[in-house]
Amino acid sequence: MSREKLVVEVVAAHNLMPKDGQGSSSPFVEVDFENQRLRTFSKYKDLNPVWNEKLVFDVNNPADLPYRTVEVNIYNEKKSGNSRNFLGKVRIYGSSIARQGEEIVQLFTLDKRSLFSHIRGEISLKLYITTQEEQSSQSKPVLKSTENEDRSTTHVQKQKITQASSSQLMQLQQQQQQKQQQIEQQQKQGNIMEPGVNEIKPVVIAAAGPVPLPPDPVGPSFHHVVGSGGEFQLKETNPSLGGGMMGKDKTSSTYDLVEQMQYLYVRVVKARDIAISGDSHAEVKLGNYRGVTKPALEKREWDQTFAFSKDCIQSSMAEIFIKDRGDDYVGRIVFDLSEVPRRVPPDSPLAPQWYRIEDKKGEKVKGEIMVSVWFGTQADEAFSEAWHSKAANVHGDGLGSIKSKVYLSPKLWYLRVSIIEAQDLVPGDKGGTMMRFPELYVKVQVGNQLLRTRSAVPSANRSISNPIWNEDLIFVVAEPFEDYVVVSVEDRIVPGRDELVGRVIVPVGSIERRLDDKMVVSRWLGLENKNYNVFGDAKVGSSRFGSRVHLRMCLDGGYHVLDESTMYSSDVRPTAKQLWKPHVGVLEMGILDATGLLPMKIKEGKVGSVDAYCVAKYGQKWVRTRTVIDSLAPKWNEQYTWEVFDPCTVITVGVFDNCQLDRSSGVNNIGGVGVRDSRIGKVRIRLSTLESDRVYTHAYPLLMLHTSGVKKMGELHLAVRFSCANMANVLHLYSRALLPKMHYICPLTVNQLEVLRFQAMNVVSARLSRAEPPLGREVVEYMLDHDSHMWSMRRSKANFFRLVSVLSGLIAAGRWLETVRSWNRPVHSVLFLLVFLVFVAIPELILPTLLLCISFTGMWRYRARPRHPPHMDTRLSHAESVYADELDEEFDTFPTTRGADIVRMRYDRLRSVAGRIQTVVGDLATQGERLQALLSWRDPRATFLFVMVCLISAVGFYAVPLRVVVGLWGVYALRPPRFRNRLPSPALSFFRRLPTRADSLL
C-alpha cells in the first residue's frame, strides 16, 4: 500500500514588496509541513515571479491531516548566503486540502508575521493529496531552524535532503572537518574573522534515496561559535587577593581586592658636605635597572622615590651613586637587600637617615646623603609618586604621564537665561532706503556655547522698538565660574548680514542660584552698542537712547547635568549639594591586570608592544592607573573606592595605550600636537546586578569594532565588591524617581538633553585636559560615549531585534493561542476550554491565579539567576554579522568624506529603512484613526450602524449576565476549524471599512 503524499504546487506570486534596497526582490518560497521543510529556487529581481514547482511531503497520519497546517513563507534571498528578508506568509488548514483530481489554483493574500512586518501581494498555490509517486520539481532542502531569520541559532539542526549519495556525503563531511581545522588554527593565531567567511552552506547532492546530513560542527558562522562559546565570553577567575591573607594581614583591610606586589623602595632626599658644581644628580642602580633623579642645582635636594619590582630584582645589592655634571663620579653608598626592613601600612613611613659616602676603592670620604630603603607593597603611599623600574626610558615630564592619578569632574550647572522683552531699541537700516520691518533677535553666548532666539514678529499692540520673545535658553557651566554671559540684540538686515543693536555682559558668578522651580527676580539691563556694559561694574560709555533688555537668569541646581549617556549614567544626583541624600553603599574595585593585549605600536620597523593604562569613571571621580611600559600582560593591582548614592548606576572602565611616550625616538611627546592615546576596549558594570558584599573576580573581554569587524583586544581582570550597610535604604530607592524632581516638574525636551549633554562633555574634557598629567579628550569622549547618537545601521538592527525579543513572549503566546484555536492538539484545546469556563464561572479566581503564577515563575527561575555581571555581547550588538559597507558607514566622519556614488547608495538604503518605519507608523496611526472614526460621523452610515449596535448590545448585556456573554464568546472563538468560516469576521470587516485621515495626505 503506497503512502499518501501532500503536493504543494507553487504557481506564482504577484505584487511583492521590494526588499533588496534597489526597488526589487529575489523571492523564493519555503513550505513547512509536519517538521518537513522544502523550498523553491529564487527568482532574481522579480516582483511577479512564476515558479510552477511541485513540493512533495510525506503524510505520516492521514487521519490527522484536517488538524494540521501548511506554512507557506516567501523570502527575499540576499547575496550573503543565509541572509533573507521576510516577504509574507500564508497558513493553510489541512481540512481545506483537496484530493487529486479535485484541486484548483487558489489565490491567497499574504499575511504579516508580526506587527512590524511590512508586506503586500498575493500567492497562487495548488494543494492536493495523492497516493502516486510524485517527484519534487526543482526544489531545495532547507535547514530546520527558528523563525528569527536564522540569527538566534547557534547550531545547524538536522536537515532532510531528498536527493543524496553516500559517497558524496562522505566527501562533504571531509570538507567540513578540514574547514573546522582551519578555523581552530586561525582561532589560536588570534586572526580576525569577517562575517560570512567561514559559513558552511548546505549542498544539494544528486542521488537516490533520502540521506540525513549530520549537524554542522561549527554552526552557521565562526563568529557565532566564538561569541557563544568562549572567546567573547566572561570568564570567572580566582586570583590571590590580599596576598592570600584575607583578614590576617593589616594590608587586607584596605587593599584586599588586589594581589599584593612586593617592591623595593629607595627614597633619595638630599646630600651635604659634598664638593660638587651644583648640577649634581643621584643614580640608583639595582642590577640592570637604574633610576636617575632630576638635577639638584644649588640646594642639593632631590626628595625622589624609586620603586623596583621584586620580580625584576636580579642583584643582592642596591647602589646609590652621587654624580656631578657630566656623570663625574663623586661617591656612593651600598645596601645589602637581605638587611632591608619591610614596612607594613598603616605603619608610619620609614624615616630617612644620613649615610657616609665612599669612593671607588670603598673608603669613606667626606660627604653624606640622606636615604631611606625599605620593602613594601603597592599599598604604600609612596607607590603612586614613585619612579618605577619598568619606566627606565622615560625621563623628565614623561614620568608624570605614567603615574596613577585621581581626577574630579567639575561640578556642572544648568544656566537658564530667559529672554523676556526689550524696550526702546533703535534698529539700524543701512540695507537701503526702502521701508522694512526689523527682524530683531537675541543672541546669547557663554564660553563657546551660542544660542539665539527666534526673530520677534511686529504686532498691532507692540511697537517695533519694544519686541517680546519670552524664550528660555539653557547652557552648561562649571564651577569655578570663569565665564561671562554675553547677551546681544541684533537686527537681520539681509540674509547673511546682521547689525548689532546693543549688548550687555553678565558674569556667571553673579547670577542667582535656585534649588526648585520658583521664579527668580527678573532684571532690566541697559544695552551698550560699542562699549560693553558689564553688569555689576562701572558703566563704560553712554547708553544708546536708553535701550534695555528684560532678562531672568538663574543657575538651576535642582537638575542633574547629564554628561554621559542616560543608559550608562554613573550619577543621578542633583547639582546642589543641599539636595543630596546620604550614600547607601560603597563600591570597591581592584584593577588587577590584563592578558593577551594586542600590540599597538610599531617599534624600529617591527611589531612592538603596548603601554597600557586603565581609566575608571564613576560619578565625579575619575581614576587613572599607572602606565605599565612595554608589556602585553600588564599588572596594575590598584584598588579604588567610590561612594554609591544609587545602585541603578554603571561604572565604566576603559583600557588605553599611552601614545604620549615615543620610545623609539627617545622623546617624550607630552602635550604633543595630534598625539592621541589609542583605545583598547572598555567594560561596563551595572551595580544593581551585583549581590551585596560579594567579591566578583572575572576576566572581561576587551572588544573593539574596527572597519574589518569585531576584534578581541585582550582581557581585563577586575575584582569588584558592592557593600551596603542598610539594605532597607537600598530597597527604598527602588520606589523613588531615578532623576531629581526638577526633571519631572520642569522637564527638558529630548533634543535639549542631547545638546546639553554634548556641551557638558566638552566642558568636562576641557577641564580634565588642563590637569597634570592631562586626561586626553579622546579618553573622555570614549568613556562618555560621545558617538552614541550617531546613525549606525548595525545599532538600528540590534535595537530592532531587541524589540522583537521583547515582543517575542507576546508573539509566542499568540501562536500558542492560535494552536489551541486550530485544535492541532485536541487534548490541549479541551483543557484550555475547561479552564476558561471555570474562570468565567468564578471570575474571582482570575487575578489571584495570575499573581500566583507570576510569583511561582519568579521563584522557579531563581535557580537559573545570572551568577556573573553583564558584559559586552557581540551577538546582541550584531557586531559579528555586520556587513563591510555598514561598518564603513559607521566609522565614516560627520560630515561624510566618501564619494558621491557611495553616499547615494547609502542614502537610498536609508530611505528604504525610513520608508518601512514610516509605513509601520502610518499603519498604527490608521488603526487609531479608525477607532476615532467610530463616533466621528465621518462615515455617517458606519457611525449609525455602530451606535445602533451599541444600543442593542446595551440592552442585551443588561438582560444577560456578563459571564454568560464572555463564556459564549470564548466557546465561539475556540470552536474547531471545521465549524469556522475562512472569511474575516463581520466586526473585523466593519472595522477595516472605516475611513482614516490617510485620505487627506498628499
From TrEMBL:
Keyword Cell inner membrane: no
Biased composition (Polar residues): 154-167
Residue span(s) of domain C2: 1-108, 245-355, 396-525, 568-700
InterPro entries: C2_dom, C2_domain_sf, C2B_MCTP_PRT_plant, C2C_MCTP_PRT_plant, C2D_MCTP_PRT_plant, MCTP_C, QUIRKY-like
Cellular localization per UniProt: Membrane
Membrane association type: Multi-pass membrane protein
Stored Pfam families: C2, PRT_C
Keywords: Membrane, Repeat, Transmembrane, Transmembrane helix
Renumbered residue ranges of the record's region Disordered: 136-175
SUPFAM superfamilies in UniProt: C2 domain (Calcium/lipid-binding domain, CaLB)
Lineage: superkingdom: Eukaryota
Gene Ontology CC terms, in alphabetical order: membrane
Transmembrane segments: 800-817, 829-857, 944-972
Family the UniProt entry places it in: Belongs to the MCTP family.
UniProt protein name: C2 domain-containing protein
Taxonomic placement: Eukaryota, Viridiplantae, Streptophyta, Embryophyta, Tracheophyta
